[in-house]
Every structure is written in structure tokens, then in C-alpha cells.
Amino acid sequence: MCVLEMIAREEPYLECKGSLSEIETLVNAKVHPLALKRIGNRTAREFISLCLLPADERLTAAELLNHSFLEIVGADDDEVKLGMISINC
Fold first, then answer.
1. Which of 44, 34, 46, 50 is nearest to 7 (CA)?
2. Domain range for 49
3. What CATH code is carried by the domain that includes residue 43?
4. Neighbours of 37 (CB within 10 A)
């Protein structure tokens, strides 16, 4: 959810207007937040969708680190390519 919020630049489930019970209902029903559909970068959207899978279906953190969304650009960890965005630490 944190990655989704950073990329979409809005809180997940903003469409629920702060109703915690509605958010809980949607999460339990495995309904993704509308913000996910607004992410134009397919790789980013795919990565976030993998993170939102139920625990028994979700990849491990080590497996997610191999996703193309988190492609390491340099030989060291100074720069991580996030889809179309490059962040220098």
C-alpha cells in the first residue's frame, strides 16, 4: 500500500472517503483500490498487484526484489530504477 500511495500520490481507497468499515470490506473482498488502475506504468502496476495478493499467494520479499520494477541500475545500491522514475540516494 505504501508503494501504491507513493506512485499514485494519493491514499489507497480514497474513494471510501475515510470510512474504515468500507475499506475493511473492500480489503476482505480482495478489491484493489481505484488508485491502482490509474497507474500508467504497467511494470509498477504489476509489482503493486503482486504485493496485494493474499499472503498464501504472494511472492516472498526476496522474490519481489527480482521484479523488473526494482531493477538495479548501477553496480552498487546508489540508484534504483523505479519503472520510468530514477531515484538517486
1. 44
2. 2-88
3. 1.10.510.10
4. 10
